[in-house]
Amino acid sequence: MPSSQAPELKPALLPPGTVVGSWRVAAWAGRGVHGTVYRAVPVTDEHAEPTALKLALLPRDPRFAREVELLSRVRHACIPRLRDSGIWQHPGGTLHPFLVMDWVDGTPLYEWAQQHTPSSQHVLRLLAQLARALQAVHAQGCLHRDVKGDNILVRHSDGSALLTDFGSGRFPDAATLTPGTLPPGTPAYRSPEACLFELQCFRDPRAHYAAQPADDLYSLGVTAYRLVTGEYPEFGDPSRDASGTWHLEGFVSAAPLSLNPSLDPQLNALILRMLSMRPEQRGTAAELASALEQAAQGSSPESTPPCLVPEPPRTAKTPSTEVSTPTPDALVRVTPPGRAQPWQSVFAAAAALGVWIIWVYESMPLNAPELPTAVRHEADAAGLEDGGTAGLGDEAVASSVAPSVPSVSGEPAESPLPEPKPGQTRPNAKGKCAHPRQVPLNGGCWVKLSVDREGCEALSGTLIEGTCYVPIATHERQPTSHPACTP
């Protein structure tokens, strides 16, 4: 009987007591698209401090070997230490790589900030710790490539910030595992130079953007901006000159201090520095860490009152609507009356994603029930060090597509309509979009997705009554005079 049931053992849900290498599973902790994290202890000492064991869902997943190699090269107090790695053989015969790291008993950054309402001085110290962690990564020629709040844990014991999830990272001479113009990462956190490269070269199958340390610093700037304002920063709409070269107008979002008057001016200036449109103006991680540390030393908790205030819980619209507790998104900020919310977090990334969505839709059968889309990874358990082997941009999960395509007249009268965006595909003279699964609505062509608020923002969509409307970028032919892209 045991042998007949053994092949039913699933890497995604190992029961407590399962032995993986020299480790015994104590509890399930969380799951990403590529891996599942368990709390584990040594087989020889079940009373030892727990560790985080990450097991690949797919046999022989090469991402794990790359993450192990990267972590083995980096040593820093704000990066979980690699403890072990190996291969676990499923009873069915398949081989699944795993790695073991220090267990971090902490809370994801945005959620932690909502709970503790830190001062500007505290935020400066956390950002300095993260910059030092990136300094250690960059000193080895490595990159994280997915710095964001979900990949940062604030440890309960001492309040330190730890940079986690190196599944999207890269070390020198590492093999490319992800096809496409851009490396894995989260669209809302991509640098302007990465987005411009995508706009310029997405049609060239040989082109692949080579991320630099400045990309990590920009992502840290996005993280800081969102941490203190609750919004993603935004740069201007792209434009293309007569030669076919794309340009960005520059950073157009309000300075953090204008959205949050409680912010320390030095923190405001350093966030804007990280978000500079020119990568050389961001400096190095070491330079940034020194500036953050000096700013933190020059301020005091008394002079920097709490710069974040949790938003009150939302009220239910109907008796059947669940009243949820505030999410990490729910941060109150002082906003001038009538100030419009930005329609995009990163337009260039949205344009590239729009083209990608078109390709997906045109490649799939019309009766396909699901559309893969990048959505936010949620850690389901407190203290989870890392719920997957890659960042948001590398985690495509199935999201249901609405089976019907309502017309404008079919929308409830009281529902707002998403506003068309510059460069968005428009319906033809008959009011139809290029593909049957695109929704013609309010003068634009959209894709309807079932994702949460964070996922919708990351795709530069508009969330209306629980449905995310993602704009489809114009799918036009590039001029023949377009300069060649460098692979």
UniProtKB/TrEMBL annotation:
Documented EC number(s): 2.7.11.1
Listed Polar residues bias regions: 317-327
MF term (GO), any: protein serine/threonine kinase activity
Residue ranges constituting the Protein kinase domain according to the UniProt record: 23-296
Keyword NADP in annotation: no
Enzyme class of the recorded protein, top EC level: transferase
Record's keyword terms, sorted: ATP-binding, Kinase, Nucleotide-binding, Transferase
SUPFAM superfamilies: Protein kinase-like (PK-like)
Stored PROSITE patterns: PROTEIN_KINASE_DOM, PROTEIN_KINASE_ST
UniProt feature, compositional bias: Pro residues: 303-313
Record-linked SMART domains: S_TKc
Region called Disordered, residue ranges: 285-329, 385-435
Low complexity biased stretches: 285-299, 395-414
Protein name: non-specific serine/threonine protein kinase
Source species taxonomy: Bacteria, Pseudomonadati, Myxococcota, Myxococcia, Myxococcales
